[in-house]
Design goal:
49% of the residues lie in helices and 12% in strands. The protein is built from twelve helices and five strands. Bound molecules: adenosine-5'-triphosphate and magnesium ion (MG).
């Protein structure tokens, strides 16, 4: 819907329930705090942490929140969005995050460059970690290779901690034989589920406040409808909530009802 008049109608100062919220606007739910704890723990121990969750459950947002909590003078975080490409593709992404642009090189050369850079960074007393979002897309052989990146000849230290985030099949992909060396280093897991009804109420208020609206526009029954319709998943809830606001504004209703949520749901499908 191109019509922006609903924003005027409800005095929304910005697009509500938007994809690109600022880090300071991220709602720190208990599960988000738990994700942060586990990631920090894995990084301290030089190990691997897994973050899984359904589509739109807040995985990428959680990673963004955690990364923002690390001071750049103390931590180098290699952040990558995985593709289903080859290991060379992944290595190119890692190198580019490390500020090294390489068009073509052999796997061996790239491995060496990455390791050298990691040693260089850690020798400056900085901590380093790699976060791979959408890791459920990675090919199986990539997991086997990834492990070799974390191996350094000079005995155990330094290790490259790795945070893998993705849909639940990520866990299955780590069960394969070639993934086992990497899987054996997993020391922390978080699974993001849909939020409960009370948290959904908080969530809707939270996003309204981001858009500058202090008044709770959603009736209780509308909150319940959004909660049920979304399964407590953030992205689906965003779509339903925004659609319901638009429907309410269209009918010049000062609050958003369950019926507006239903109208919104039929438009989405
Ligand atoms: N903690 C939060 N506080 C406020 N908004 C959030 C939070 N978590 C998620 N959202 C909202 O939900 C949307 C979807 O979240 P996000 O993209 O992080 O999910 P995801 O699990 O990474 O999804 P996908 O499976 O598609 O990668 C975000 O764009 C944001 O608007
Ligand atoms: Mg994501």
């Amino acid at each position: 819907m191109m019509d922006k008049s609903y924003r005027q109608f409800f005095a929304l100062q910005s697009e509500p329930f938007s994809i690109d919220i600022k880090r300071k606007d991220i709602m720190v739910t208990p599960s988000l705090a738990a994700v942060q704890d586990r990631i920090q723990y894995a990084i301290r121990l030089g190990a691997v942490a897994l973050i899984t969750g359904e589509i739109g459950s807040g995985k990428s947002t959680a990673l963004r929140y955690v990364i923002g909590g690390f001071h750049p003078s103390e931590y180098k975080i290699i952040y990558i969005t995985a593709t289903s490409g080859s290991i060379l593709e992944l290595y190119r992404q890692i190198l580019s995050e490390l500020g090294i642009d390489i068009k073509s090189a052999s796997k061996a050369v790239m491995t060496q460059l990455i390791k050298r850079e990691i040693l260089e960074i850690t020798s400056k007393k900085m901590k380093i970690a790699m976060m791979i979002d959408e890791a459920s897309l990675l090919r199986l052989e990539v997991f086997a290779e990834l492990h070799t990146l974390t191996q350094f000849e000079q005995d155990s230290k330094p290790f490259l901690p790795i945070i893998l985030s993705g849909q639940i099949n990520l866990v299955d992909n780590l069960q394969y034989r070639n993934s086992l060396p990497l899987a054996s280093r997993v020391i922390a897991k978080s699974h993001l589920k849909g939020i409960d009804l009370k948290t959904m109420d908080d969530y809707l208020r939270h996003h309204l406040a981001i858009a500058g609206v202090k008044r709770m526009l959603f009736e209780d029954a509308a909150v319940t409808a959004i909660h049920q319709g979304s399964g407590g998943l953030f992205r689906k809830a965003n779509h339903l909530a925004r659609g319901a606001i638009i429907a309410a504004a269209k009918s010049e209703s000062t609050s958003v009802t369950a019926e507006h949520v239903r109208l919104s749901a039929t438009e989405i499908l």
